[in-house]
Design a protein that fits this description.
single chain, 434 residues, Rossmann fold, six-stranded parallel sheet, 44% helix, metal-binding, amino-acid biosynthesis, zinc ion binding, Ald_DH/histidinol_DH, NAD
Length: 434
Amino acid sequence: MICRILHLQSEQEWVKASQWLDGRFNPGDSVEGSVREILADVREKGDEALIDYTRRFDCPEFAAPLRVSEQDIAWAAASISPEHREQISEAAHNIRTFHKEQLEKSWFQTRPDGSILGQRVLPVDRVGLYVPGGQGGNTPLLSSMLMNAIPALVAGVPRVAVCTPPRKDGTINPHILAAAHLLDIDEIYRVGGAWSIGALAYGTQSIDPVDVIAGPGNIYVATAKRLVQGTVGIDMVAGPSEVLVVADSSARPHWLAADMLSQAEHDMLASAILLTDDITLAEQVQQELEKQCSQLPKAQIAGKSLMDWGAIVVVPSIMTAVAIANRVAPEHLELCVRDPWALLPYIRHAGAVFMGQHSPEPVGDYFAGPNHVLPTLRTARFSSALSVQNFCKKTSIVATSPAFLLENAPAIASLARLEGLEAHARSVEIRGKR
């Protein structure tokens, strides 16, 4: 069968039963040496290295300039269909509306002695976004453009640069350019791969360095982001896509199969898991997966994903399913049960939770508004979806009064001396001397 069925009696049994998933936790060590070499080339040679790698991997006849002209961006925006233009605009509106709620304000507090303390929230100066071209530019990931750019723009970032690989003829898919035009982004470079991450981190003759890099990519791009972290901030190092579905007897098997396949078709390392307390439903979903997968354009990818990393798990109760879901800490969690709101308080770890039968994961990928850049590989235990905060920094403000310093100088000096820092102590004490 295309997808295994497991029978577990408890959350503890999952620990041993799920060991087959460990193979997905590949940190990219196999490509790290190559990526380090690429980054070093970009740092040393700048644009020359970018052009060389682009010729080797994307466009054999590639030539400068790297930057797409404003005229080409405007032409692309006019060239796509009105229907697509409206769909992109509506999705952007939903995403922007959601992320505006994430804005944080600077704040100050005053004390009776006249001291003022606070926190100032500011956007970073410059952000670099990576947008995959998708199958040589034929399946543009314009949703990645929207999901990464809009939080940065809502945060107030004044300069946003986009890197995306060119097609074999050197052009960029017009839908990516149209999405950028809609967002008033005009700094777009025809360069992709790990070399573009190096350009954004270190700068070249054509590309100024940035403060934060965001956006998905293949293992080379993900490894490059991990290696430049510290020189710049990054959104996260994302792994293969994953969905976990908790379903009871009220769920429709053909809907569940479709939801699992929506993740399985991403790539052969994607994971789709169903947890249910209904053995009949489990068997029906297994049959539906066989049927629906064979009808997909990416049937080979989806089938391999389900066979290697997918599972239908039958458990004694829905609460056992919830406990296992928290152990998995999935990127996407669907609650396809009669009352999903009753389960939500028990969900501890998930990148995003999709509530009920009419909230399939692709709604979040494209249109609902919450960000689809989510933690994977159990990192939802400690990290969050991409947000406005990824593009902001917080500065503490300290304005203590003379009265505060005079009253507290002895305690401050004492604590400093406990740490063996005499100059710290004297810096405070000297202000109390005439």
